[in-house]
Design a protein that fits this description.
Peroxisomal Thiolase, Chain A, domain 1, alpha/beta, 7 helices, five-stranded mixed beta sheet, 262 residues
Length: 262
């Protein structure tokens, strides 16, 4: 049994939490519309109850018509043939919901990945889902030594109601290993939008800024799967809805030490 304590606070001198692992492998893939379905009266009743009182453009007919990819299928396809060594911890990150609420990607990943890893999910954090996932991973690794951590950032558009949705289904897998460097991550609430870019540059000037900092278009949905594809040394993004800034800095073992972070 694994007992979790309170989240690890950043130090007084730095807002960055440290994951003592380097980024070993990055896998990124976009997907066509999936073939999973939501047929059946149970799902119609579930979504009818869920949408009641919310203006989300729902109608029961949309459940029967819905077709998409579940997070289980996205994870399975992006990881196919890529993971052979035991994994200690998996964190699944997403903003929008899974296509089929009856299925659990974390439970499935624990069963199918080597090492039967502990698996968690973080959601509802918009473009900072991946940053929060790394923050969670850093907290666990600090308490219990681990060798490999997998972070999955995923997004799917097959929701049985109208409204804003991702333009594509996509998944990015980030595999971290001990002895391959280190990773620093900061998730900073209470940052005004007008100050976000300057605060990023003060703490760690980024090589890649997400749409929340550039004002550019969102490429693959609010979970920002595209931001993590082939990540540079430092990347950052901002969630204007929550007023939160995310910064991540990667230092691989073969690289010179990264410049000091504020």
């Amino acid at each position: 049994m694994f007992s979790a304590g309170a989240p690890v606070a950043a130090t007084r001198t730095s807002p960055f939490a440290v994951l003592p692992m380097g980024l070993k492998t990055v896998l990124h893939r976009r997907f066509e519309s999936g073939s999973d379905r939501l047929d059946g009266p149970i799902m119609t009743r579930y979504f009818t109850d869920l949408a009641a009182g919310h203006d989300v453009g729902y109608s029961p007919e949309l459940v029967a018509q819905a077709q998409g990819n579940t997070f289980i299928s996205l994870a399975r396809d992006v990881l196919h043939g890529q993971v052979s060594e035991p994994i200690d911890l998996v964190v699944v990150a997403h903003d929008g919901p899974d296509f089929d609420p009856r299925l659990s990607a974390p439970v499935n990943l624990t069963a199918v990945l080597p090492g039967a890893p502990m698996t968690y999910s973080v959601s509802g954090q918009g473009p900072l889902a991946g940053f929060l996932a790394l923050r969670v991973a850093a907290g666990y690794v600090r308490r219990k030594p681990m060798h490999r951590v997998l972070v999955l950032v995923m997004e799917q558009r097959g929701m049985p109601y109208a409204g804003e949705r991702p333009p594509v289904d996509a998944a990015t897998a980030l595999l971290f290993e001990s002895g391959a460097g280190s990773t620093r991550v900061a998730v900073l609430p209470g940052i005004d939008r007008a100050d976000a870019r300057a605060e990023t540059d003060r703490l760690a000037p980024a090589d890649r800024y997400g749409p929340g900092l550039t004002g550019g278009p969102v490429a693959e949905g609010r979970s920002a799967t595209a931001l993590w594809a082939e990540p540079p040394a430092v990347l950052a993004d901002y969630d204007p809805i929550r007023g939160t800034l995310g910064i991540c800095a990667f230092a691989r073992e073969s690289e010179p030490s990264a410049p000091p972070l504020a």
